[in-house]
Amino acid sequence: MDPDDELSQLLEEIVRDEVIKGIILISKEGKSESMVILEEKVNKSKLAAASATLLSISSQIIGKLLEQTPDYVLSFSPNNLVITLPVNTGMVLSALIDREKAESRGVENYIIKIKNFSHKVAEVIELSGYPKKGLFMNVKSAIPEAKAIAILTKEGVPLIFHPAEEAITLSGMISAIHMISSSMVSDENSEFSIIFGREGMIITLQIDNDRLLSVALPKKMKIKDIIKKLKEAIKESEKQDSHLEGST
């Protein structure tokens, strides 16, 4: 069976449980790979970005405070429970659960069920070569001279930041620059902004409504050429995922 079809089938099977309102598989870049969402009010793109963000922050917090990696993260609202966990080094899984029904049957039972399910997903991913190339690798291939590449949320949370030193602090600064630039050009969103040094430059470009891409170059290059390469890298990553965007 085709890996994409196998993933979709796995997701469709697990949401047959009336307690599970939806499930989504996300790359750590914040891009949905496959999803089945039964709850109509759920903003799917925001859930994808939020899931990757949550695990990114959780990994850094538990790493610094306990020197551990996250097993899973639980998020509660009055009506819902979301279980978020890493599937492998490049993927994240989030399950939207009916809280009342889960609590009546035992939340721990659903944690175990989702964790077991994630192992099945991981097997498909490993055999199929997921995650796909992705935006980070597209940019790295297109601009090999880049000294640093960051994919982050507009709020300043790092999704992927390489090299990782001071990722949280620098992501916050990049986000602030984007917001200030947007206000200065009297527009809701700045298309891109550039910081010029004596020799190098840092370009920050909006990927979509939720994410930013920032690239540091050790030497100045033609702006038109770099922006073109970055936009092509973004388009290429969208093509890689386009066959999954219609999943419901």
In a few lines, what is going on in this structure?
By secondary structure, the chain is an alpha+beta fold. The protein has helices at residues 3-14, 44-66, 99-105, 107-128, 134-142, 167-184, 223-241; strands at 20-27, 32-37, 73-76, 80-86, 91-98, 148-153, 158-162, 192-196, 201-206, 211-217. It has a five-stranded antiparallel sheet with strand order 2-1-5-4-3, sandwiched between helices.
CATH fold topology of the largest domain? Beta-Lactamase
**Tally of extended strands?**
10
Considering DSSP H and I runs of 4 or more, what fraction of the residues is helical?
A: 40-55%
Shape: elongated
Number of helices: 7
Question: How large is the share of residues in beta strands?
Answer: 25-35%
- Secondary structure class reads alpha+beta
Indicate the mean pLDDT: 86
The structural domain count equals 2
Q: Which architecture of the largest domain does the CATH hierarchy give at level 2?
A: 2-Layer Sandwich
- Parts with pLDDT < 50 across at least 5 consecutive residues: 243-248
Distance between the termini: 20 Å
- Describe the main β-sheet briefly: 5 strands, antiparallel
Radius of gyration using CA atoms only = 19 Å
Strand order of the largest sheet: 2-1-5-4-3
Order of helices and strands: HEEHEEEHHHEEHEEEH
Overall description:
The strands form 2 sheets. A 5-stranded antiparallel β-sheet has the order 2-1-5-4-3, sandwiched between helices. Strands 7-6-10-9-8 form a 5-stranded antiparallel β-sheet, sandwiched between helices. The model is unreliable at 243-248 (pLDDT under 50). The chain has 2 domains: 3-131, Dynein light chain 2a, cytoplasmic (Beta-Lactamase); 134-243, Dynein light chain 2a, cytoplasmic (Beta-Lactamase), CATH 3.30.450.30. The radius of gyration is 19 Å and the shape is elongated. It has helices at 3-14, 44-66, 99-105, 107-128, 134-142, 167-184, 223-241, and strands at 20-27, 32-37, 73-76, 80-86, 91-98, 148-153, 158-162, 192-196, 201-206, 211-217. The chain is α+β, with helices and mostly antiparallel strands and 248 residues long. Helix 5 (134-142) runs antiparallel to helix 7.
